Amino acid sequence: MMTTNDVAKVFDTVLSIPGMNDVVKIDLKISRKNVLLLNHVIERGLAAKDDDKPSILMTSVPEENLQELKLFGDECLQKAGLIELSEKLKTLSETGK
Asked: What is the model's pTM?
């Protein structure tokens, strides 16, 4: 069985493969509903909670890459015209806690 350190080394190796930082263009057609869900999943995955143990992958990824992922989610919302709706849904979910 691999140790946590071994897994982190494997992730680091995969992320260091030549070409992994190359920009790719993805032509994607996705429903607005799924844009909202995707953005929520990205935000939830990036939100660090004290009681949640982060995955080894998340701890191995540089902060700048995580910020790029956050910006991607925001860009998807913008292109779908859902920024205002997303903010209102966040407000509703926060008041429901």
From this structure: 0.76
